[in-house]
Amino acid sequence: MAKYVTKRVIYMFLSLFLIASFTFVLMKMLPGSPLASAAKLSVEQREVVYEKYGLNDPIPVQYIRYMGNLAKGDFGVSFQYKSADVTTLIVKKLKYSAILGTQAIVFGTIIGIVLGMIAALKQNTVWDYGSTIIAILGISIPSFVFAVLLQYVFAVKLEWLPVGLWEGWKSSILPSIALAMGPIAIAARFIRTEMIEVLSSDYILLAKAKGANWFEIAFKHAFRNALIPLVTVLGPVAAGLLTGSLVVEQIFAVPGIGEQFVKSIATNDFAIIMGTTMFFSVFLIVIILIVDILYGVIDPRIRLSGGSK
Amino acid sequence: MKNHKFMWLISIMLVLSVFLAACGDKTDDAATTEPEKDKGEDKGTTEEPAKDVPQVLNLVEVAEIPSVDSSVAEDAVGFNVLNNIMEGLYRLDQDSLPVPAMADGEAEISEDGLTYTFKIRDAQWSNGTPVTAHDFVYAWQRAIDPATASPYGPYLMAGMVKNATEIGEGKAEITDLGITAEDDKTLIVELERPVAYFLSLMSFGTFYPLNEEFVTEQGDKYASNSETMIYNGPFVLSDWDGTGNWKYLKNDKYWDADTVKLTEINVDVVKETSTAVNLYEQGKKDRVLLSAEYAMQYADDPDIINEMETSVFYFKMNQERDGKATPLANIDIRKAIARAFNKEELADAVLANGSIAANFLVPTEFTFDEDGKDYREYSDEYAVYNVEEAQEFWKKGLEALGTDKVEIEILGGDTENAKKQQEWFKSELERNLPGLTIKLKEVPFAVRLELDDTSDYDIQSAGWGPDFQDPISFMELFVTGSPQNKMNYSNPEYDKLIESTKTTLANDPVARWEAFAKAEKILLEDDAGLVPTYQRGRMVLMNPAVKGLATHPFGGDYSYKWTYMEAVEK
Q1: Are B302 and B285 in contact (CB under 8 A)?
Q2: Mean confidence (pLDDT) of chain A
Q3: How many whole angstroms separate alpha carbon B466 and alpha carbon B205?
Q4: Tell me, what's the pLDDT at B30?
């Protein structure tokens, strides 16, 4: 186990190095200037500013300096936000996105699992159709449509919850629910399919023959096996929630990270592009690692050492 | 089969019930706590007499503050915040005329218009230190210092303040800059040429004072959050951690604190217009900027206000691309295009955001003479929409080119709003000018700037927002070789007129503005070198209880110094 994790961590750094290098090359190819007032300055005046930020050096020199700073955890100075260094800025904004993302994924998976199990256990009944419809709606309607709908009903018309802004946990409810629709749908679909398959397998028949009760069969025997595929997709779903929360965050005026990611590219804000990219990469890679480790916990048959199965 | 339908119905109901149940639980307790109380308070305040109205203003802003360090700020939000938390030698009053602020009384101007002597009034920073002439010297030197890499310092000072250009080129020390403190109370500024708008420029963020001791003590941390700054303006910044929302609190140390009525201003960053409008409808926000679709929807709302901005948009007619003459090198083709689209329709139906048709380059409600008369009254309207004339010019132009078909590219932005306009330009121009094919090229802003730099376009849909209150802010853009020209327009007569406003006519305001008017006619009417399209406006929903909120044509967009909340009978 320890050996496996070490190996994975080494791979992780290798991946990050490659991602950083690619990002660097791509962002140097972006057209335009990172200066907001570039249109107003003469070439000489622009040069002075570039000089200060080291943008006049040859690209390889910039690359080596950049990677060196990156290794020290220094992303450089943002052109957009001169008031804060990039790490602080990302951490501050990430807080809101993380709260929303975590709530959405926890709420989404729990509801999704419940719906999926109900559907599988009561196959071809009203319950099954009901949860399938929810799953289809959840996967086919984008989260921002839910966001607008929820905002209209619960904030504008009923006035139960805030329309937007960040005023504590109450403000997090509607965006979290909007974001949770995707995970609900994904979890429900996976659990249903897997449960139906598992429930028709021989060992369940055996359990039934042994006289195990319904509850025991569903949770102890079937559910655990049905979880594996869900765990696999939850990693990327979680990462997607953080990056994909952009529109939902805007609708509820939550000061999260989603928008920063997009805006930094449009404004050539190199430091923020690199900062957010690295942040999301680390996040995704760590989640994939956790997922892989979780496999072993859920199903001891999966061996982590990478040897033969 | 029947059974199936029934099941469908049941399942749909089930879906809905899950939603309601899930949300109902969480919201029940929420409803019993705060919102109820809020409503109660609201009712109370509207019935109270005026003096008991809480002097609190709630605003939204569409973007966060990138920087409030006056030396490096370069955007509208930053300059607006600075205008309310800091104060320069002069400040724009409610009518946007410059009045002495940190300066004690009007400045003394030498006969040749090159030397300004300011007396500094008794004023304090928010930490109690006095504001002195040295604070200005330090701030200006910091803004021009290449090590600061200020974009606006060199942009505004070069060619104006003595030695600013030389410092930028490394030929002079920053201490050579034409600003000196004779003593704590006397500041002398030396200029390279007479600058008619110099006093109004003193209200601009880049020229605000900075306390050297405080700024150097904070180092890199200066202005990184509301705690690492000191203020000399009507308000202090509060609850700002470098990102996200912020507050203004009344600055008790401000020299004119008696005038300031508001005790608190809360600003939240809200990027979605729909969300902002919902907040306004609920009474949580007092003022909201509307996008075009909301402007149409709220057109008859009693709270709606139309404010003029000073950004002017236009077609840049590029006459030479890749070393070859474009069809626009032909003057009749240019004149035809200038007259071939209905600007009124563009402003009213396509933009529908309070913008107005522009048959001029220097905007209205921007510059005023000593008597408060708008510059536009000195000038005229040029190249007005007229299809018949346009078609005559068009025919002449085509003959000269020896063809009956011309393809022209319009380069423009890729935002929703820009695309809508460009589609309209295309259909309008192709309809009125037979034989014309318009190719649209829609690119992000950064790409457009690059294409502009290399003059790689036929027509470019662009715009300009002024940084100082003088017609030259616009007129200078199109002299031969200007970094903003980039459309290969050159007319020696035009250049000479613009030059004269900086030299021979510099100290003669009336003759100077007449020269601008002449130049404007050459550029727009005689040469059709540039085709203005519209002057931008904005539609705003504003709580009728908000009074005295001043809007400005450049620098900070708003002043809250004179704003107060009035009791409103409902």
Answers
A1: no
A2: 81
A3: 14
A4: 35
Scan residues 175-234 of A and list those with Cβ closer than 8 Å to B. 177
Nearest CA in chain A to B467: A40
Section B470-494 average pLDDT: 92
Contacts of A153 (CB under 8 A, 6+ apart): none
B35: nearest CB among A38, A88, A159: A159
Put simply, the answer to whether A52 touches B446 (Cβ < 8 Å) is: no
The answer to whether the beta carbons of residues B275 and A151 sit under 8 Å apart is: yes
Chain B closest CA to A166's CA: distance in Å? 9
Q: Which amino acid does the sequence have at A305? A: S
Residue B124: per-residue pLDDT: 94
Residues 6+ apart with CB under 8 A from B194: B112, B113, B114, B502, B506, B507
Q: What is the ipTM of this complex?
A: 0.77
Inform me whether the pLDDT recorded for B45 exceeds 50. no
* Best CA proximity match to B126, nearest among B259, B248, B245: B248
In this structure, the strands spanning B546-547 and B564-565 are antiparallel
How many angstroms separate the CA atoms of A253 and A240, rounded? Answer: 19
pLDDT category, B138, cuts 50, 70, 90? Answer: very high
A27 close contact with B: CB closer than 8 A: no
Distance from CA of B185 to the nearest CA of A (A): 31
Q: Is B388 helix (H, G, I), strand (E, B) or coil?
A: helix
> Which H/E stretch holds residue B264?
strand B264-269
- CATH fold, domain B307-536, is Dipeptide-binding Protein; domain 3 (3.10.105)
Residue B153 has pLDDT above 60, yes or no: yes
Percent of chain B with pLDDT over 70: 91
B559 or A34, which is more confident?
B559
Return phi, psi of residue B267, to 5°: -120, 125
Q: Do B477 and B484 form a contact (C-beta atoms < 8 A)?
A: yes
Residues of chain A with pLDDT > 90, as a percent, come to 1
Cβ-defined contact of B27 to A83 (cutoff 8 Å): no
Task: State which of A95-104, B18-27, B279-288 shows the largest mean pLDDT.
Answer: B279-288
- C-alpha gyration radius of chain A: 24
A with B: how many residue pairs have Cβ under 8 Å apart?
178
Instruction: Say yes or no to pLDDT of A243 above 80.
Output: no
Collapse the DSSP code of B460 into the 3-class scheme (helix H, G, I; strand E, B; otherwise coil) and give the result.
Answer: strand
Query: What residue spans define the domains of chain B?
Result: 307-536
In terms of Cα–Cα distance, which of B359, B364, B356, B361 is closest to B382? Answer: B359
Determine the distance from the C-alpha atom of residue A110 to the mean position of all C-alpha atoms in its chain, rounded to a whole number.
Answer: 17
Which DSSP state fits B149?
A: T
pLDDT in tens, B420-452: 999 999 999 999 999 999 999 998 887 888 888
Check CB contact of B282 with chain A, cutoff 8 Å: yes
- A12 at the B interface (CB within 8 A)? no
Q: Would you state the pLDDT for residue B26?
A: 35
Cα–Cα distance measured from residue B498 to residue B476, given in angstroms and rounded to the nearest whole number = 7
Letter for the amino acid at A178? A
Distance of CA A144 to the CA centre of its chain: 16
| Half-sphere exposure (Cβ direction) of B182: Cα atoms closer than 13 Å | 11
DSSP helix/strand/coil, B183:
strand
Percent of chain B with pLDDT over 90: 65
Backbone dihedral angles phi then psi of residue B412, each to the nearest 5 degrees:
-150, 180
Instruction: For residues B239-246, give the mean pLDDT.
Output: 87
Among A29-33, A232-236, B1-5, B413-417, the range scoring the smallest mean pLDDT is B1-5
Got the DSSP string for B418-452?
Answer: HHHHHHHHHHHHHHHSTTEEEEEEE--HHHHHHHH
Candidates B11, B152, B284; nearest CB to A37: B152
Give the DSSP H or E segment for A197: helix A169-199
